Amino acid sequence: MSPPSTTVVSFVRHAHSPYVPNAERRRGLSQEGRRAAAAITAHLAPVADIVVTSPFERARATVEGIADAAGVPLVLDDDLRERELAGEHVEDFDAAVEHLWANPTASHPGGESHAEAQERGVAAVERLVDAYPNRHVVVGTHGTLMALVFNAYDPRYGYEFWSGLSMPDVYEATFVDGELAGIVRTWVPPNEESAEA
């Protein structure tokens, strides 16, 4: 009987990025975001075997330093991109997002439903788990997509979890023989550390 295969996936929600209407793919990190990305690099470079990222600039810029520092491949996967909220700028972002969490199959004009985004996100993660047994995979992604992937495995990860995420944030998911065994947060932002002190 062969030993179980364990894949550890560190999901990295991107660092701070200034909002620019209709520039979802192109907007990069703020100065604060670049500083935080350097801290994320120090946190994950010692364990990373491969880095796979959303092609959106803010996600890629948060994790590309990990691949450089660890000397491992950086792979783009479009299925790790953020959920497309709508085809055009939405005035009341919070209300639009809350509606989608409450109605997973609903979508705004030109946008993607949570069910659709969740399906592609889970498929991307399952491909990684299959492809990298007994490896530590770093995934650069987005808050909503990360929450939707976790929600597929455990419904406790929903709107409240999403709304409490920091920028950046890191959650480690352990898969044993392809099944999720647990999720833990491995990153505490400096402002939360000082609040706990």
UniProtKB/TrEMBL annotation:
TM regions (residue ranges): none
GO molecular function: phosphatase activity
SUPFAM superfamilies per record: Phosphoglycerate mutase-like
A matching Pfam family: His_Phos_1
Top-level taxon: Archaea
Signal peptide: none
Recorded GO CC terms: cytoplasm
Protein name per UniProt: Histidine phosphatase family protein
Species for this entry: Haloferax marinisediminis
